[in-house]
Amino acid sequence: MNPPLLQVDQLRVHFPIETGGFLRRTYTPLKAVDGVSFELQAGEALGVVGESGCGKSTLGRAILRFVHMTQGRVVWMGQDLAGLNKSQMKGLRREMQIVFQDPLSSHNPRMTVGSIIGEPLTVFKPEIGKAARETEVQAVMRDVGLSPEIANRYPHELSGGQCQRVGIARAMILKPKLVICDEPVSALDVSTQAQVINVLRRLQREHGVALIFISHDLSVVRHLCQRILVMYLGHLMEIGTRDQMFDQPRHPYTQALINAVPIPDPRLQRAKPRVVVTGDLPSPLEPPSGCVFRTRCPYASQVCIKRIPELEVVADGQKVACHHWRENKSLVFGTT
Amino acid sequence: MGTPVLECRDLTVQFKTNDGIVAAVSHLNLAIKRGECFGIVGESGSGKTQTSLAIMGLLAENGIASGSVKLNGREILNQSRAVLDSIRGNEMTMIFQDAMSSLTPFMRIGEQMCEGLIRHKGYSESQARARVLEALEMVRIPAAARRYKQYPHEMSGGMCQRVMIAQALLCKPSVLIADEPTTALDVTVQAEILEILAGLKRHTDTSIILITHDLGVVAGICDQVAVMYGGRIIEHGLIEDIFYKSHHPYTAGLLASIPTIKMDPSEDLAAIPGQPPNLLNLPAGCHFSPRCRRRFERCDKSLPELRRIAPDHTSACFLGT
Looking at this predicted complex, what is its ipTM? Predict the structure, then answer.
């Protein structure tokens, strides 16, 4: 096996939060990401799934060093990113790009579509000149399914789906090795969402770009990613290949996420067993002791309160952090 | 059968804009029976939200509604503010996509929930409080008494949406309009909210209008579904007609574009090509024809009307004529 494109090792991102009164100011760490490790091969698509507040966006941002990591290592093609200074990091940024969730507000409203997409070129390859830049902008626009005629328009004149394609085009124009997509389709209509997913699928296939696709919706991730990582309250709950995660999900949280996706078939949807996981994510400032998922888990027992579950290998490529995964073999949540 | 709880006849909503008059909703007919859940499905700009705002009398100032909307047999379209105030929040309520910003940020949850009961039903404060706590428990809010004293910003999005639902049901309305109630939420919370709405349908006789862009959301709870495109209903039928015997290519396209857990993940999703139409410049003929894979000559020339293709099932498409 080739050395991985990206290696994340025990990554922790803690934000200091001011608590206590004005006079007794203390700082409590908010553990947004707490010890997450995974590897990503070149050209691979990894889905990072979890509810809002689980730390999935922070994980993506920490890899790109948009937020400061508290502990751990991020190794890019054998090189530890922690040791790099600003200008060295800038050189690497052309190889790692990001697409944001909100299609409209992630673009400068005063720039035309063409200049938004071409901006990375002006920053990283100023030498190529205007004409060559325009040719490249047009080529990448066609690649993501945008008509080059709209290059002179402004973001507010576009639909949500078109805006998101602009974001993808901007990320792709430098031919990066990795694109982190932070909920890129969550704000879109179902019909437009399908178009954008198909564009991402094609880019991964044809350009061999690796994707980290962050989402709360497992059905979307399934259509795009070869491997899936499930996070909860900053912790990695389960990781495995797409087929392992859908055919044999071991963690009750993964099972709950699969169960929660509505089936567009009235008979099947109405026959489906009721959702067992209810309630909200606990406050990340006071995470539960032991297993962080235990407060919403239908199988929680004494051991879950006392001990933090280790990540155990279930099968080749699949790991789960649950004390009860052996007993929890059957799909109690019913995914069919 | 009896008379419908809510009936719209020839409902049209137009907006005066700088670029001319835009028809957001055109000649819409629908009838909802007691205790029924009616789904309105369409993409952004299809007119589904404007339909509900017109029913509620909440259109923007430049909006003009015409036609007729009857609630329990009584005309409510374009009525005076005083008449509408006695209906809204009482006989007919609405919940919105963004629950957090639909709640008043500087009032405690309990206080704002009691308002309607005191105003519409003449409850005393302590009566209202008891009823509100009961309602909060019904939508599965743990530690309701503590939540009663909190402000909206102290709660998560899913929690706010549950408060909105509880509040909307306090006066036992005939109709609850839910406009994309789960779109901003996580799938797990969405499943829970849909479960609460399904429970409502089983245990009360409030009729629900569920507005969404996701057919997957209506599958679990709706009895009837209307699919909107370009301001018109283009297909309408019982839930099984829409899902198993859909007639209009747009409905079929919407169904095919939902990624599901059973689909072969190695294949591309069947996306509907193109963009939703510009209401200022609707295509001639069938509004969907530029994106339709099955269009033929006639589609570019005339606009298909809704026609009956089976009992309780209508479609605005020339296919099969």
Answer: 0.86
